[in-house]
Amino acid sequence: MTKKSEVPTNKILEDSLKPLELDKIYKDFFSKNVSPTYDKKCDAFNTLGKEKEDVKKVCSKLVHFVKKISELGKAEESAKYCKYLPHWLYDEIGGIHLDHSTKIGKIPYAQKLIDIGNTVNKEIKKNSCTLKSEYIDSLDELIKRKYMFIYYKKQAEIKSVIYSQSKYDCDKYFTYLSNIKLLYNKLKNDKCKRSFWYSPLESDYFSCGKTGDPKDLLSKAEACKAKGSGSGGGSIWGIFWGGSSGGTSVGEKEYENELAKYESENESLDSQSDRYYLNYQPERDYDY
Questions:
Q1: Which residues in 30-64 are b (16+ Cβ under 10 Å) and which e?
Q2: Which of 140-156 are b and which e, b meaning 16 or more Cβ less than 10 Å from the residue's Cβ?
Q3: Which of 33, 146, 228, 263 could form a Cys-Cys staple with 87, CB 3.0–4.6 A?
Q4: Is the Cβ–Cβ distance between 142 and 132 less than 8 Å?
Q5: 138: which strand partners?
Q6: Which segments carry the region annotation Disordered (predicted)?
């Protein structure tokens, strides 16, 4: 059980996401069962110790997925999976390097994997997918980005479920959104303070300037959960900001207006991040 202000572990985040299958589209594409042909570029890891074989397997999969993304017919489809590629890669690295507190720049094979992926990209004529280098963030932070990325991409879908008049599994959505809220609060506190050195974060996995706070969705899920259990007491808001949830129902018109707002905001963010990923050139990026 996560404490009041404690950021959930990656396992807790994964366990609460899994029943809702919000990441199914990515898991189907980046299948764990794929057995790609070995690529000689991965010989670069022959000098590694006990991690050598595992890293070479990840390397071959990375080459396979970079090529698979490029072979998709439409640029929009390629961009969709390209944006998930770094999240897949950090998950894979996390399965090998078990100390997730390590800065990614200190993991000897991490940058080399990115370099190989980008070398493959240079051989691709269209729909290339360039990976951005990371140095100062911990592996744990990079893995957690995946959960916010999925939340942002599926925000409108989640809202359509929770604000609809149809039945849904209140407990599962409540647990998931409670964990996302804690992670959201952490990122907002860490990434949205303007200073001389840093600007508020705007990315495909978190936006300081866009509507993304899950508090309203969490409030609705809590009201549904309380109604299902026959109890109206004990609000979750004491955990996050000391308020109370009203748990009032919304009409069809309000639902449609709210859903349209979410879809519009998500579409705007998608188009911006699509351009970023399709046009990104690492040699021009000095913001490490």
A1: beeeeeeeebebbebbeeeeeeeebbbbbbbbbbb
A2: bbbbbbbbbbbbbbbbb
A3: 146
A4: no
A5: 103
A6: 261-288
CA distance 281 to 129: 10
- Amino acid occupying residue 144: K
Q: 12-24, pLDDT tens digit by residue?
A: 999 999 999 999 9
What values do phi and psi take at 138, rounded to 5? -75, 160
Closest to 63 in 3D by CA, of 36, 87, 95: 36
Q: Under a CB-based contact definition with an 8 Å cutoff, are residues 148 and 206 in contact?
A: yes
> Which residue reads 């990079």 in tokens?
142
The C-alpha angle 262, 267, 268, rounded to 5 degrees, equals 100
pTM of the complete model: 0.77
Q: What is the dihedral of CA 186, 188, 194, 195, to 10 degrees?
A: 10
Q: How far apart, in Å, do the first and last CA atoms of the chain sit? A: 35
Cβ–Cβ contacts within 10 Å for residue 29, how many?
Answer: 18
Q: Where are the domains of the chain?
A: 23-144, 154-277
Is the Cβ–Cβ distance between 281 and 130 less than 8 Å? yes
Specify the higher pLDDT residue, 134 or 196: 134
